Amino acid sequence: MGVDNCPFLQLPTELRLAIYSFALLDSPVVTVGSAELVGSHPDVVHRLYGQRRTPHSGLPQNHEPVIEPCYNSSLLSLVNPAIIPLAPATSCPPEEPPYSTPHATHGSLLLVNKQVKEELDSHFKLEKNRRTSLFISYPDGLHVLRTLAPHLLRQARSVHIAGAYTSRSFCAPRAACLGSSAHPPFIDQRYNGNFTPNSAGHLSNLIASLFGPNASQSRTGGRVDVQKLELRTYYPGSDSYSTVWGDDNSPTVIALRNIYAGEVSIEVWRGQRGTGVYLSARPARKEGEKRRVVSTVWRRLEEGRRGEPRCGSWVVDPAWPCWEEAEQEPPTDATVVSVGAASEEET
Ligand SMILES: *[C@@H]1O[C@H](CO)[C@@H](O)[C@H](O)[C@H]1NC(C)=O
Ligand SMILES: *[C@@H]1O[C@H](CO)[C@@H](O)[C@H](O)[C@H]1NC(C)=O
After folding, report:
1. pTM
2. Which superkingdom is the protein from (predicted)?
3. Ligand 1 pocket check: which of 29, 71, 72 to mutate, most ligand atoms within 8 Å of Cβ?
4. Which pLDDT score, from 0 to 100, does residue 222 have?
């Protein structure tokens, strides 16, 4: 296609760059998750299946993918999860699945011609490419990200994942405390299309792409590393502590297995009804450094009793969407440092 007969290329460069930015979803904060459709049975069925639609496979039944160009804590919350209330008037989904469009647009812009591709490449090199803070629910948001908007990960300056993990040997009555939520994030979940995503594998890939042995290869082309990964996992159940470290699919174990170099700090929040593990990782201070430093502290999780936050609400950091870029100097010699007293728990 020649320049003359392509109206897009006749636009001023700045305008084209503005269009590229929009197409690439230039939002400082993005939240990825899913929300349950709530309404009468016919409305839900119409929303999911009307006009030959099919539900997004791999999400819990009656859930729809949601990608918002802002911070939305309810997409991450276990205790007040996001819902989409349906009335007959809203039972058709938005015209386009939200934000799957920019991806498509980016792809089609690249097809326009070589000049556009070069402009895109140099523009985003200048911008250092990573500007977005990406908040993802686990496991559903992770699946939505992979299937609808994988390009968001390449733009992310920081990645924040929040969710619950229950092991297969899980005993339901012990986590009854969480059962009050409309959508317990576990146990006998039925998925659209009878397809259960491999959340453990996908989390491994995501973390390896940011912190694995080959992650630094993506530094070529003027890109910079992601500045921070935060992983907040709630393990429901009074005896869930062993799951944190003992289960191969535990998100904490997956993260430690896939972070090759960098500074990792772990806070283990032990409670009577569940355990919260906050893991954060930053790239090594020096380029090319192969060392991994892990520090761990134990804290007490107060939840579920009168006057305390509801069980599982810990998973959403109240400070979000703010996050600290720098952390205190980690200890220089020790690889594992324990601070605080585990015996506190017993009192
Ligand atoms: C968060 O997302 C849900 C689901 O899309 C939406 O219903 C709700 O209004 C959003 N909340 C805010 C504060 O934007
Ligand atoms: C890293 O790259 C090497 C060479 O390209 C490849 O053999 C290896 O499997 C990669 N490792 C991971 C964890 O992807």
Report:
1. 0.76
2. Eukaryota
3. 72
4. 38
